[in-house]
Amino acid sequence: MTSLMPQSMLIGGAVMWGLGWLPLQFFATRGLVGMPLVLLTYSLLSLLAVPVLWQQRREWASQYRHVITMGLCGGWATAALVTALAEGNVVRVMLLFYLAPVWAMLGGWLLLGERFSAARLFALGLAMLGIALTLGISSETLALPSATDWLALSAGLAFSLNNLATRAADRVPLASKALVSFVGSALLGALFCLLLRQAPPPIDFTLAWQITLFALVWLVSMAAVQYGLTHLEAGRAAVLVVFELIAAVLSSAWFGSHAIGPNEWLGAALITAAALIAGWPERPVSVATRSTCA
Fold first, then answer.
1. Of 22, 130, 157, 208, which sits 20 to 30 A from 63 (CA to CA)?
2. CA distance 106 to 163
3. Contacts (Cβ under 8 Å, ≥6 apart) of 170
């Protein structure tokens, strides 16, 4: 029987991501939001990432293009999503970002040769319907895309490309996969701070250790997600990551931001069902079946 460890790790990391709005909201009250937060957090993580990447350089040298892709796409996904959430409508941003399962399934089919099984397509449809019900579809949601919308859409696309590169980089150590996007996020955060002329606020000792704790938790969640992405097909992994949305919505309601309505409960149930269907190990094709098909 196929181990459920990759699914469990991926779901756990996604749930931690979904709860990430809580520290982001806290840091916003301290005047630290958007690209300055990305710069500080991921620069701190890069102090750990760069030595590990350098130490493992011989192991991933033959697949350096995948490593560069993971760094740039993972970094852009973080930078673009944080910027979009800071400047745009959160509902629109989340809905556009969670088109990622569509990109991942198409990319897995085009680039990695992964097949579209009936169960996988059904799970994708359930996930998309669940997202629509959870976030709500209105005339505002369907309005013409703004610059913030394009950021959110590009973040979902970059996240999917990062997932595909992670899956394809079968000779890259897990530590390098988990850490390279931190370097990309730090570089892009610095670039955006320069372009947007945004400077971090004064950092005292209390804020410094809080940022450090946030960075460490993010490191653990990223490692869990990368482990899952490495051991799962891209289409299945993309649907499982939708657990981030469930965690975000439920935690938001739990802490009093808004009450959960019937549509949100139904949407969360559909997303959960989709994740379970996508994550359930498929039966391998028997030798007899393969010889018959041949």
1. 157
2. 12
3. 63, 230
| 294 located within any domain | no
Looking at the structure of the chain, the number of domains it has is: 1
Structural domain boundaries enclosing 136? 8-279
**pTM surpassing 0.85?**
no
At residue 150's C-alpha, the angle toward residues 147 and 154, to 5°, is: 145
Contact status, residue 33 vs residue 27, Cβ threshold 8 Å: yes
Q: Which residue has the tokens 């808004």?
A: 258
**pLDDT tens readout for residues 182-206:** 899 999 999 988 988 888 888 888 8
HEC sequence for the chain = CCCCHHHHHHHHHHHHHHCCHHHHHHHHHCCCCCHHHHHHHHHHHHHHHHHHHHHCHHHHHHHHHHHHHHHHHHHHHHHHHHHHHHHCCHHHHHHHHCCHHHHHHHHHHHHCCCCCCHHHHHHHHHHHHHHHHHHCCCCCCCCCCCHHHHHHHHHHHHHHHHHHHHHHCCCCCHHHHHHHHHHHHHHHHHHHHHHHCCCCCCCCHHHHHHHHHHHHHHHHHHHHHHHHHHHCCHHHHHHHCCHHHHHHHHHHHHCCCCCCCHHHHHHHHHHHHHHHHHHCCCCCCCHHHHHHHC
Instruction: Check the CA dihedral 177-178-180-185 and report its sign.
Output: positive
As a whole number of angstroms, the distance between CA 261 and CA 207 comes to 36
What are the backbone angles phi and psi of residue 102, rounded to the nearest 5°?
Answer: -65, -50
- Give the torsion sign (CA, 202, 40, 187, 149): negative
The first and second tokens of residue 183, run together, are 């370097």
On whether the CB atoms of residues 162 and 70 are closer than 8 A, the answer is yes
Please report whether residue 254 resides in a domain. Answer: yes
What's the gap between Cα 9 and its chain centre?
A: 13
Q: Is residue 2 part of a domain?
A: no
